[in-house]
Peptidase S9
Amino acid sequence: DGPEQALFAFDTASRETRQLVASGDLLKESKPLSREEELRRERQRMFSRGITAYSWAKRAEAMLIPFGGDIFLRDPAGAIARLTSTPEPELDPKVCDGGERVVFVRGRELFMIDVASRRETALTRGAPEGVSRGLTDFNGQEEFDEPSGFWISPGCDRVAYLEVDERDVERVPVFGVREGKEDLQMVRYPRVGGKNPRVRAGVLDLATKKTTWLAWKGGQEERYLGRFAWADGGKALWFQTLSRDQKRLALLRANPRSGEAAEVVVETSPSWADFGEMRPLERSPRFLWVTAAGGHRHLALRDADSGAELAKLTAGDWDITALAAPDEERGEARFVATKDGPTERHLYSVPLAGGEVKRITAEPGVHFVTVEPKGPGYVDVHSALGRPWKAVVRGDGNAELGAMPAPIDPELAELGLRAPEIVQVRAESGDTLYGALLAPRAIEPGRRYPVVVSVYGGPGVQTVFNSWSPLLLWNHLADRGVVVFQLDNRGSANRGRAFEAPIHGRLGEVELADQIAGLELLKTLPYVDAGRVGIYGHSYGGRMTLEALLKAPDRFHVGVAGSPATDDRLYDTGYTERYMGLLDQAAARYEAADLSKHAGNLRGKLLLMHGLMDENVHFAHTAKMIEALMAADKRFDMVVFPGERHGYRSPVASHFANRTIVEYLTEHL
């Protein structure tokens, strides 16, 4: 289930790295994951084991480390205290800013433990079956990047939390077999057109243990809640709402004592709106706000009382991808953006008073940056095509305080792995698309090579970057005489709403047209055999594989579709209704997008792969396609992973899947 991680520290003075904590320092024997932990790891796409998370108290030298379903605290001297040892796991533990208390969820209720006395207190009680406190629901975790369901105030005197009532949400069976034993789980799954959970937000006073529920005009309407943030020293609580159809976004400010809340900013979109990024300033009643209301995700400074826009801080044909902590001492906002090209990521700054946007990171490529909360320093983890990842600690004036090149496994280095080249494709719309191309190592004059398209293609995701990755499967295919190609079609992320919105109401159509445009580029290369084209992908990429084989069978000749979404009506509300609309208003769109209707068009070779216990894209998607293919008397191949979910986690399953993809594609091309 992934590599074993430990926690390390880098000393900027000595420039030495040392191990702080390994899993064996916490527990001598690892415990099996509980069902709750397993599903949270699925939502977070977490494949590593060992120490996978840690957090610091902001005003105390205490490090919280969750591990094995329990909670540990490490002090500056390296002493580790175990705060819990229970049969049930403690989920999503958080330490107060002062380090004196830890709040967590156990058994669908909120608890608090006093660090000094180790005394544990139940903060909520009596949740009936199907109701949870302090956890977000499936949509929040899977579709809205909202992993947490509670937020501790700066003074550690209050906790804002969500109460999620899933009793009316459809129960869907997820069945599998692990180690020869049947495993049946009934999961609450908000299927398109069905009931969403009822979610409300409250503020719990830690002294009285009483909850004040938030209320605002329109608060009883169907909506999604998220992006909670304390401000003004705990005197204000900010949060956002999205309407059920996800066309109306509102930013609200609540009084945590009374629970009264009011909308401060409202934005609407004819296609869809996304949650914004908001950061309150500490030194003035203003906040930073990033949304795509103007077509691209840009930064504005707004008044905290009225919501009025005080200044547009950024503009242009590019997008902010992450808002970092501002440097209020210097009067600067900081953010990561695509200003230097869609395949690049750099850290920038702009004066809060308005002015020139300045790039901070120097090297070309992709930069993942963690900035100093109240200062100019930052940690920069960066790479580029052909240049592996490197972590650099920088201080005032961008001075390098230390660097940590990523260690490369000697066996990996001996493989002579190559990076793809980034190419540009002109879409039928006139848009420039970015692709990645890896040709065989030595092109023989006059010889033409088959093509394999590695595809995702879905909205909200970008796959082509100027960054380093080993790309083992790509390199293996190329060394076997295959041209490997990947393309970010329209609808993919970080190119602006005009680039994303054409997919609205017609999932699969625009994406396939752009993938075909990519093939047209490949046909111009003298070494490409356009009569032998394979395609493979997982999840939305599995869907795109079927779109290609069933709707363009003259262009795509063999495919491997992993865990494909074949009928949008079988998928969840949060994702699908955003892009396809509400089912009762768009039934014809959903019917037209059902891939099983096109099963009779299959002419090439098809391999379906699916984890039987997939609780995200349920096996029902593949089952429906199987029934349609059989009804059309079409031959296909199938691999089922009896104990795997949406991601193939066991080393055996992962290795088998990759080997099967390579062998199936190369055998039939």
The first strand starts at residue 4 and ends at 5. The chain is about 15% helix and 35% strand. The chain has a mean pLDDT of 94. The chain has four domains: 31-122, 129-275, 277-384+386-417, 420-668.
